[in-house]
Amino acid sequence: MKASGLNLVNRKKLDPDKNIRSLLGAKLRKYRDAEGLTQAQLAAVLGYVPELISKIETGELAPVMKLAEALNHRYGTEAFTELQPHAGREQAQAAVPEFFRSYISREADASALRIYEQRHIPGLLQTPEYATEVLRAGQRKSDLERKVDGRLDRQAVISGEDPAWLVVLLDEDAVRRVVGSPEITRAQLLKLLDWAAEPHISVLVVPAGAPVYPASGFTLISSEGAQDVAYTEGAGGGGEVIELSSRVAEIRRLWDMLSQVTLSPAASEKLIRDVAEGFEAS
């Protein structure tokens, strides 16, 4: 039975060609209108607030997969779950600051990456559980899921058919730091060892007390037919993509200095494995 009182006046006009979120939202409004329900009525049936339905229909938000599955079931379609991953990824990318969007674009085209990290395992090598803990602070659940998915998607640059070369210099403190729980950290360290066993990936530990003190983590990006660029991490989650050759050269010299004080590949592997086994025993 169609509900009376549908407000069809002054509704925001939808543009399904704008982006994937808008396409999904337009489909939802079409199905809801055909059923004769208001946004509030559909929200009540599904167990969500009306504001969420409104924001999905106008393309402001992508639904989480659980809601997409509920919409599929209600309307007898596969459209919502098919579009949800793309809409969620699109939303996550839209939320990324411009400076980091530029970095991600360059990272995806890299032929070689050199990463120095002080605080935790680099995002390119993180497990879903570890990434969730690193990104958790101040995030709504739906936003957190999208950010984790976005981070994991970036791993394609080192896991595809023609992966980039990757060398990671990792402070010992980052290896020993518990993130989330000992179990999560142990699983992450074991995954790190799996990554390091790949022929195109090296992970070397900068031991505690090494006489080199960079102010922050950084990445050097090499791409075919292009000059190297660098990315430096800033306070509060900020950062900067550096293209000026003289500044990139300074960071490259810092990389060379760090490379002189790392443990050997075998010693780095042993330290990581020993720390992981220590978490298992605790």
TrEMBL record:
Organism: Actinomadura harenae
Protein name stated in the entry: XRE family transcriptional regulator
Record GO terms (molecular function): DNA binding
PROSITE patterns documented for this protein: HTH_CROC1
SMART domains tied to this protein: HTH_XRE (SM00530)
One matching Pfam family: HTH_31
Domain of life: Bacteria
Signal peptide: none
Gene3D superfamilies named in the record: lambda repressor-like DNA-binding domains
CDD domains attached to this UniProt entry: HTH_XRE
InterPro entries: Cro/C1-type_HTH (IPR001387), DUF5753 (IPR043917), Lambda_DNA-bd_dom_sf (IPR010982)
Domain HTH cro/C1-type: 28-83
